[in-house]
Specification:
Elements: H1 2-19, E1 55-58, E2 61-65, E3 81-85, E4 88-91, H2 97-111, H3 121-127, H4 142-147, H5 164-185, H6 203-207, E5 226-227, E6 240-241, E7 254-255, H7 259-267, E8 273-274, E9 277-278, E10 315-316, E11 319-320, E12 348-354, E13 375-377, E14 396-398, H8 405-412, H9 427-430, H10 447-452, E15 455-457, E16 463-465, H11 475-480, E17 483-487, E18 492-494, E19 506-510, E20 526-530, E21 538-539, E22 543-545
Parallel strand pairs: 12-21
Antiparallel strand pairs: 1-4, 2-3, 4-22, 5-6, 7-22, 8-9, 10-11, 12-19, 13-14, 15-16, 16-17, 17-18, 19-20
Helix pairs in contact: 2-3
Length: 570
C-alpha cells in the first residue's frame, strides 16, 4: 500500500510538471508561445467559432438544388442538381427597418448628411433606401412612402427599397461594427464616438495596422492586451500587440448568402430526415404540398405572407389569414427547421450570385456560386500597402487575367533564351522589350491567339472573335469586324439586339414576397434584377462563413423543434 501511494505521488507530480509545461510542436519539438523558442504564437484556448449576434447556425449537407415544382414559366433556369453546402451562419430574420436606421444614423454621424456637418455626405445619401418604390400610379401608397422606413410602428418590419449594392455595403459596415464592439468589450480598444472620415474603424485597416484610433496598447494605462511573445526586436519590443486573425477573436466578414446557401437554408430539411433518408420531398420550407397549417390547434391557417389571388392580400376582416397586406414583422409565422423566419413569403431576398438563365449541371457541386471577383491588397513598388482612402478603407485591386498585363507578362513571356522571369524581377527586364517581340503585337496578342479563333480583349475594351487562319488586323478592321459591345467593368460581351442583356450586374433574388403567388414560395424558384435597382418586395439578410468543423457543440446552436401548435406568428 505504501509503495502504491509513492507511485501515485510520483505520477501526480509528473503530471503537474508536464501539465504546466509549454505546449510543443509535434513536428519540430519547439515550444509554442515561448519567447526563448522564437515566440511562434498558437491560440491554445480556442474551442470553436461563436455564433454572431442575430444569427443561427445552419449545419451544411447535401440536397437537390433547383426545380422541385412545375416550371410554369418555362424559364428552364433552375434545372435540379445535387450539391453540397458547407455549414454557415444566417440571420434569423430579414434585416429590419430599425437595423437599417442604425446604419444610417452611424453614416450620418461619421460622414454627415450635408457639407455643413460632414466631409462626405454622399456616403449617407447613397445608402438611403428608395422609399418611392411604394408608389404606384394607380394606388394610394403615400403613407408607406412617408412612414414605412422611419416610423416606430414599422421598426420590426423588413427594410425594402434596398438595392443589391446597398445590401453589400450594409454587410461590410456590420462586419466592422461587430468586430469593433468585440475589441472594446474585451479591452483592446477604447470607445471612440468621435471617429470621422479616414479615422473610422474598419476590420481590415485594424488588422493591417492602418487604424489610427484609440488602441489601448498605445496608452500608458493599459488594462488588457494580447501578449506578444516575439522578442526579435529586442528589449524595446512592446509586451502586447493588436489582435490578429490567429487569435480567433474577430468574426469573418458578414456577406449576402449564396444562392445555394439560401435555398438549402430555406428548405430546412434538417427536421425532415431520419438517419440519411429524407422522409418527404418538400416543395416549401414546411412539410406537405399546401400553404396552410396542418396542426390541429392552428389547422388551416396560412403559414406564410403571400398573395392568395387577385385582390386578396390578407383575407377577410375578422379572419385575416396571413394578417399582413404588406410585409409583416420579421418574427411572424412559424420558423423552419433551422429556426429561420420567413424563408418563404414576406419579402424576397437578395443573394450574392450573378444571374445566368442556364445553370450548367456540370458546374462545381461543392458550394456552387457564380460571381467571383478576386481581389488583392494594393501595394506600391516596394510591396508596402498603399495608404487607406479618405473613407478609412484599405485599397484593393481586382485580380484579372484579362486585364492585368503584368500578370500576363510574367506568366507567358520569356526572353530569347526562353528563361521565364520570376515574380518580382520581371519589370526592369521587360520594360524595354515589351511589344518588340515579332510574335507579339502592340495589344499583347500572340499569333497563336489570333489563329486559334479565341476571344481576345485589348486595351480599347473591344472584343473580336477571330476567324480561323487570319493574320494581324489593322485598328480599323479591329473595330469593324465581328466587334461586340463590351462592358468595361464586367468584361461581358453583348451584341445589341441579338444577344441577351443579362449582365454581370444582374443579381439573383430568391423566395416569394407579400405580393407574390404561392408558386414563388418554392425555394428553388429564382429571379433577377439589376444590382442598382430596388423594389418594395425585396429585402435581404446577412450570412457568415463557418470556420472549422461543420458541426457545433455550443448549446445555442442545438436545434429546437418547431411547435406548429403554439406559434401563431402575429
Amino acid at each position: 500500500m505504501i509503495k502504491m501511494k509513492k507511485h501515485l505521488l510520483i505520477l501526480a507530480g509528473t503530471a503537474i510538471i508536464f501539465g504546466c509545461g509549454q505546449e510543443k510542436s509535434k513536428t519540430t519539438g519547439w515550444n509554442y508561445n515561448d519567447p526563448k523558442h522564437g515566440g511562434f504564437e498558437v491560440s491554445t484556448n480556442f474551442a470553436e467559432q461563436n455564433t454572431p449576434p442575430g444569427m443561427v447556425f445552419v449545419e451544411g449537407g447535401s440536397f437537390t438544388m433547383g426545380r422541385v415544382e412545375q416550371d410554369v414559366r418555362y424559364d428552364w433556369n433552375n434545372i435540379p442538381k445535387g450539391v453540397t453546402v458547407s455549414s454557415f451562419y444566417l440571420d434569423e430574420t430579414e434585416v429590419r427597418n430599425v437595423d437599417y436606421l442604425e446604419y444610417l444614423f452611424w453614416l450620418e454621424r461619421v460622414y454627415g448628411s450635408n457639407y455643413d456637418n460632414g466631409s462626405y455626405p454622399e456616403v449617407y445619401w447613397n445608402a438611403l433606401p428608395d422609399t418611392n418604390v411604394w408608389r404606384d400610379k394607380l394606388a394610394f401608397n403615400e403613407p408607406l412612402v412617408e412612414h414605412y422606413l422611419r416610423h416606430p410602428a414599422y421598426h420590426q418590419y423588413p427594410v425594402v427599397g434596398i438595392s443589391w449594392e446597398q445590401a453589400v455595403d450594409y454587410c461590410a459596415w456590420r462586419t466592422d461594427r461587430v468586430n469593433e464592439r468585440i475589441l472594446i468589450d474585451n479591452g483592446y480598444l477604447w470607445e471612440d464616438p468621435d471617429q470621422v472620415d479616414e479615422n473610422v474603424f474598419t476590420t481590415e485597416s485594424y488588422l493591417m495596422g492602418q487604424y489610427e484610433g484609440r488602441i489601448r496598447r498605445m496608452l500608458p494605462n493599459l488594462k488588457q492586451g494580447v501578449h506578444n511573445y516575439n522578442k526579435k526586436a529586442g528589449r524595446d519590443r512592446e509586451a502586447v500587440r493588436i489582435v490578429q486573425e490567429r487569435d480567433g477573436i474577430l468574426f469573418p466578414a458578414f456577406r449576402l448568402p449564396t444562392e445555394a446557401e439560401w435555398e438549402y437554408a430555406a428548405l430546412g430539411l434538417v427536421n425532415n430526415t431520419e438517419e440519411e433518408n429524407i422522409d418527404e420531398r418538400r416543395l416549401y420550407p414546411w412539410d406537405g404540398d399546401g400553404v396552410r397549417n396542418a396542426a390541429n390547434k392552428n389547422k388551416g391557417e396560412i403559414v406564410a405572407n403571400f398573395k392568395r389571388g387577385r385582390g386578396d392580400n390578407m383575407g377577410i376582416a375578422s379572419k385575416l389569414n396571413d394578417n399582413a397586406d404588406i410585409p409583416g414583422p420579421t418574427r411572424t409565422y412559424w420558423p423552419n427547421g433551422f429556426g429561420l423566419y420567413n424563408m418563404a413569403g414576406n419579402v424576397s431576398e437578395w443573394v450574392m450570385d450573378v444571374y445566368r438563365p442556364l445553370v450548367d449541371q456540370t458546374t462545381t457541386d461543392l458550394n456552387p456560386y457564380r460571381g467571383n471577383v478576386y481581389q488583392t491588397w494594393s501595394r506600391d513598388e516596394d510591396r508596402f500597402l498603399i495608404e487607406k482612402d479618405s473613407l478609412g478603407r484599405i485599397i484593393k485591386e481586382n485580380v484579372s487575367h484579362a486585364n492585368d498585363k503584368n500578370l500576363w507578362k510574367r506568366r507567358n513571356y520569356s526572353n530569347s533564351n526562353n528563361i521565364n522571369f520570376l515574380d518580382g524581377d520581371y519589370d526592369s527586364r521587360l520594360s524595354n522589350d515589351w511589344g518588340k517581340d515579332e510574335n507579339i503585337n502592340e495589344f499583347g496578342e500572340t499569333k497563336e491567339n489570333i489563329v486559334s479563333g479565341e476571344i481576345v480583349i485589348n486595351d480599347n475594351t473591344q472584343v473580336q472573335i477571330r476567324p480561323e487562319k487570319e493574320g494581324y488586323l489593322s485598328n480599323k478592321d479591329r473595330n469593324n469586324q465581328n466587334s461586340f459591345e463590351l462592358d468595361k467593368n464586367t468584361l461581358e460581351v453583348y451584341d445589341y439586339g441579338k444577344t441577351s442583356l443579362v449582365t454581370d450586374n444582374s443579381k439573383v433574388y430568391k423566395g416569394g414576397s407579400w405580393n407574390d403567388r404561392a408558386y414563388w414560395m418554392v425555394p428553388g424558384t429564382r429571379r433577377f434584377l439589376d444590382q442598382s435597382l430596388s423594389t418594395a418586395t425585396i429585402g435581404f439578410r446577412c450570412a457568415m462563413d463557418r470556420l472549422g468543423p461543420p458541426t457545433s457543440q455550443l448549446k445555442e446552436n442545438q436545434r429546437k423543434p418547431v411547435d406548429w401548435e403554439r406559434k401563431k406568428g402575429y
